[in-house]
């Protein structure tokens, strides 16, 4: 039972940065903006968060800086696509390449440096629950926030007028504009929110999961987050299951290696990414694209 509890705990820790990034991309895509630059926003956020936390000694300032860095990179995507009507797919791919290269270049002097970051803050009494107590209630504050975030985003998207306006920009921007709303502003809101959450997801890697900086530390998690948006059918609640599914795959491959399992290490390393392909295939067969916002990836033509 102890081993099960440890695996569940590691699953949640590994899935948390993916969950933040997935939720951010869900908000962006529900507004109609396809942003494939999640990987770039995550790694820039990881570097910004680490650098600020290391300089100031305050990890909360680091998280805020990471979110701002993700927003800054997302604003580049917004400018290209929402202002200059650029192709959203090409812009997102360029954003990932640029973000990864920029973070690796600027972060070179910090490789191997450590910072205090976030420590685990077990919740009294709840931590003592057999099996699930340690798995759910012995984490750092960023994990606890991630537990509540899907519900908060669901309430925002489904139960508020601002969330309805944002969804209308992704579903039918012409109808949204016809009733006096501003679909471009809503797409800006979705894009920047997505960038902020992706940056926070990156900060989790450098400030909570490792407390150090290494080049390319996101290791493809941003691409997994993009795939999970489809798996979740653009619903925040389903993103929880998807993120922890991949967290379990990552945790399992590390533990199998530590146990000396007679399985090639290259196969174990590819396991989470092979699962990504499988998830996309299954989601495509079951979903048939019915949950995707109708105007996703379609630019809003400027009015005359």
UniProtKB/TrEMBL annotation:
Main location: membrane
GO molecular function: transmembrane transporter activity
Keyword Membrane: yes
Residue ranges of coiled coil: none
Topology in the lipid bilayer: Multi-pass membrane protein
Any one cellular-component term (Gene Ontology): plasma membrane
Keywords: Cell membrane, Membrane, Transmembrane, Transmembrane helix
Regions that span the bilayer: 33-54, 60-84, 93-116, 136-157, 188-207, 213-234, 241-260, 266-285
Domain of life: Bacteria
Cellular localization per UniProt: Cell membrane
PANTHER family: ABC TRANSPORTER PERMEASE PROTEIN, SUGAR ABC TRANSPORTER INTEGRAL MEMBRANE PROTEIN-RELATED
Protein name: ABC transporter permease
Species assigned in the record: Oceanidesulfovibrio indonesiensis
């Amino acid at each position: 039972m102890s081993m099960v509890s440890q695996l569940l705990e590691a699953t949640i820790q590994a899935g948390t940065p993916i969950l933040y990034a997935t939720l951010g991309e869900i908000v962006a895509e529900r507004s109609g903006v396809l942003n494939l630059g999640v990987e770039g926003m995550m790694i820039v956020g990881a570097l910004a968060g680490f650098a600020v936390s290391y300089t100031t000694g305050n990890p909360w300032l680091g998280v805020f800086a990471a979110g701002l860095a993700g927003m800054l990179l997302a604003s580049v995507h917004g400018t290209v696509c929402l202002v200059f009507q650029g192709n959203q797919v090409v812009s997102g791919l360029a954003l990932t390449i640029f973000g990864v290269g920029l973070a690796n270049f600027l972060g070179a002097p910090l490789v191997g440096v450590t910072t205090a970051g976030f420590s685990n803050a077990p919740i009294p009494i709840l931590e003592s629950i057999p099996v699930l107590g340690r798995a759910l209630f012995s984490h750092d504050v960023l994990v606890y926030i991630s537990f509540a975030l899907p519900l908060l985003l669901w309430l925002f998207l489904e139960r508020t007028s601002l969330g309805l306006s944002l969804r209308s920009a992704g579903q039918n921007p012409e109808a949204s504009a016809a009733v006096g709303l501003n679909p471009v502003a809503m797409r800006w809101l979705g894009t920047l929110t997505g960038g902020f959450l992706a940056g926070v997801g990156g900060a989790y890697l450098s400030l909570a999961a490792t407390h150090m900086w290494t080049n390319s530390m996101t290791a493809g998690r941003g691409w997994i987050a993009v795939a999970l948006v489809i798996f979740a059918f653009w619903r925040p609640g389903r993103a929880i299951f998807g993120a922890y599914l991949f967290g379990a795959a990552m945790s399992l491959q590390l533990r199998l290696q530590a146990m000396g399992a007679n399985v090639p290490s290259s196969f174990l390393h590819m396991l989470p990414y092979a699962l990504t392909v499988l998830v996309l295939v299954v989601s495509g067969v079951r979903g048939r694209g019915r949950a995707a916002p109708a105007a996703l990836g379609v630019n809003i033509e400027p009015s005359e």
